[in-house]
Amino acid sequence: MQELSPVADKTQKSAILSPIAIIGALFFIFGFVTWLNSVLVPYLKIACQLNNLESYLVASAFYIAYLVMAAPSAWVLKVFGFKKGMAIGLLIMSVGAVIFIPAALTRTYVFFLAGLFVQGAGLSILQTASNPYVVVLGPVESAARRISIMGICNKFAGAIAPIALGSVALKNVDQLKITLATLSPAAKIPLLNELASRVIVPYICIMAALIVLAVLIYFSTLPEINTEKEDESTALANTNKTSIFQFPHLLLGVLALFLYVGAEVLSADSIIGYGSSQHILLSTAKFFATCTMICMIVGYFVGIFCIPKYISQNAALVVSAILGFIFSVLAVVTEGYVSVFCIALLGLANALMWPALWPLALNGLGKFTKTGASLLVMGIAGGAVIPLLYGHLIDVFTARTAYVILLPIYLFILYYAAWGHKVRR
């Protein structure tokens, strides 16, 4: 895999910083779009009159696109290159935002899910391009630090997004729920239609922002990178490798990332609804997703200042997995605000997992990097599966008990951090 080593002269330093700034803007945009789902889950549950399992199809429709689009994403980047590929991904996302308009006008849940799927499809291209970009733009030992910086951009947007959309979509929704409970099905329709229409203006603004950013990326000075070129040691190690499936540390990394994304999405997308299940008003609970994002931002700052100076990438992953397990146990055995706070603290535990998993999984892939990255992007489909299983468990047990699904997830991530990433045969 081609690396751009850090250099002393200012010209080359600015050549690295400029692409990082551009990629940071991308991470902010798709962070904003992604973490709107934490509001959409409880919002659409009311607007479209859904049960718990159905409401978590919001996350499933969005993240299953990563699985479906993994191979097409690699093809797009191979044909058009990284820069043009990212512009294409942004335009696809804008189409998904447009679909929200007829979805809101007709209050049709399938249309909402279609819009989310298309947005996820565009994001899969962006993720496939941007994450290896950050890994390549500098030494591999500090890749987690650079991805942590991107994570701050992503989660800062994630902290803003639920408040921004929640202030519109969930305005006076607690009183609305009380009113709806007293009305006949026919009498509910006008109120539900008004509620559904609240997302039209926000998604028109999102569409416009995505189109503008796509144009800016297309005409930017963002350089192309060549991941087909291997250094001498990597090329020698991969002499007998003919398939991506000959890298078991990558395959285990894909599974670890699948589980991690599922846990991260679950902790962020469920916390508002979970707060409501703990008898906390939605007018208050709508801020809980922001608390999760703030915890993640704190974790990313830890990564920036500590990796690799004080702690290695895999050691950070070990600590993160242990914290995730502890906070999950505490969330299940406590109640009310304490339990909700433990779910928010999962943001701290999850923060360094993404930055650490990517470089560990991509290490030594050389010319297989693009294909490896596309497989890792497929792992993001964990966000489609784990929350849906959680939604089913809520209907069977309780919202609090259902969080036991997190325990085996963090145990496997702990295994990968300690031993799995070393497997080479």
From TrEMBL:
Residues 19-425 form the Major facilitator superfamily (MFS) profile domain. GO terms for biological process: D-glucose transmembrane transport. GO terms for molecular function: D-glucose transmembrane transporter activity; galactose transmembrane transporter activity. CDD domains: MFS_FucP_like. It is found in: Cell inner membrane. GO terms for cellular component: plasma membrane. The chain crosses the membrane at residues 15-36, 56-77, 86-103, 109-126, 200-219, 250-275, 287-307, 314-332, 338-360, 372-390, 402-419. Keywords: Cell membrane, Membrane, Transmembrane, Transmembrane helix. The keyword Magnesium does not apply. It is a multi-pass membrane protein. Gene3D superfamilies: MFS general substrate transporter like domains. Belongs to the major facilitator superfamily. FHS transporter (TC 2.A.1.7) family. Intake of glucose and galactose. This is Sugar MFS transporter.
